Automatic annotation (TrEMBL):
Alphabetized InterPro entries for the sequence: UstE-like
UniProt cross-references to Pfam families, sorted A to Z: DUF1295
Sorted UniProt keywords: Membrane, Transmembrane, Transmembrane helix
UniProt protein name: DUF1295 domain-containing protein
Membrane spanning stretches: 12-32, 39-57, 145-163
Keyword Cytoplasm attached: no
Species whose genome carries this gene: Streptomyces siamensis
Gene3D superfamilies for the chain: 1.20.120.1630
Length: 277
């Protein structure tokens, strides 16, 4: 693990924490003014972008320039696209039902409760999950096959996220689909193309740190935490509990992969109508 600039990286951990906290506190101030805390979801992508940019500046003269530019660009494209998508999706809507239910249980001031339970927690997660973004920019060596494999995996992930989100938005915009389960396009291969895409993005960014054993070791927790959240935590399970009572959802589950894309199973034959004789 020699050659990795531990001292500079340790200083960057503090700078990244400050960047994530600043984004969350600024978002909290806007949310209190508007009276809607759902905008914290926009800050998720912005927080990672801020960490990438702060790390890019701080790592100047330490890490490989090509890797620094690549990691910052990939993280910023992902974060800004996600923030813009969530902002468009939430425009004109009131409070998110998840936050409304949580805030209804607040023992005191709702805004301070949200600050503690949502904003500061998300800021801490941004800092933790962004470890590959930080560590990779301090790797001194040139890009290798690990980095290009990571870029390819990131590209696959962004494709699933962006295309899946666009397909779902078009489906919901058609009044004829009201009350129906989206089971077309990428959504016929996996019930969660956007979560699978997120999974690929963060494992891809992790591979960009794997040209250094030290960076790989310190950053490994990030894709593991993100994978746990997406597959077992606040991602797939929470959404599917919300969807469980929707008409047709059980049939959709039976024929469609739960996370990793697989060819959809054939629909069963239509039931035979009872004989009139």
């Amino acid at each position: 693990m020699s050659g990795f600039p531990w001292g500079a990286f340790a200083q960057n951990l503090a700078l990244a924490a400050g960047a994530a906290l600043a984004v969350m506190l600024a978002t909290f101030a806007v949310a209190v003014r508007k009276g809607v805390h759902r905008i914290v979801d926009i800050a998720w992508g912005l927080g990672f972008t801020a960490v990438a940019l702060v790390t890019f500046v701080a790592s100047d003269g330490t890490g490989d320039d090509g890797r620094r530019i690549l990691v910052t660009a990939l993280t910023s494209v992902w974060g800004l696209r996600l923030a813009a998508h969530i902002a468009r999706r939430g425009r004109g809507h009131g409070e998110d039902p998840r936050y409304e239910a949580m805030l209804a249980k607040a023992p005191g001031n709702r805004d301070l409760y949200a600050l503690h339970k949502v904003y500061l927690l998300q800021g801490a997660l941004v800092w933790l999950v962004s470890l590959p973004v930080q560590a990779a920019q301090y790797v001194p060596g040139p890009l290798t096959a690990f980095a290009w494999a990571g870029t390819a995996l990131w590209t696959l992930g962004l494709f699933f996220e962006a295309v899946g989100d666009a397909q779902l938005a078009r489906f919901k915009a058609d009044p004829a689909n009201r009350g129906r389960i989206m089971d077309q396009g990428l959504w016929s291969w996996t019930r969660h193309p956007n979560y699978f895409g997120d999974f690929c993005v963060w494992w891809g960014l992790y591979l960009l740190a794997c040209d250094s054993g030290a960076a790989a070791a310190v950053a490994a927790v990030s894709p593991l935490v993100m994978s746990g959240l997406l597959i077992k935590g606040s991602g797939k399970p929470m959404l599917e509990r919300h969807m469980a009572e929707r008409p047709g959802f059980a049939e959709y589950v039976a024929r469609t992969s739960g996370f990793f894309p697989l060819p959809p199973k054939r629909r069963g034959p239509a039931p035979t109508p009872p004989s009139s004789t």
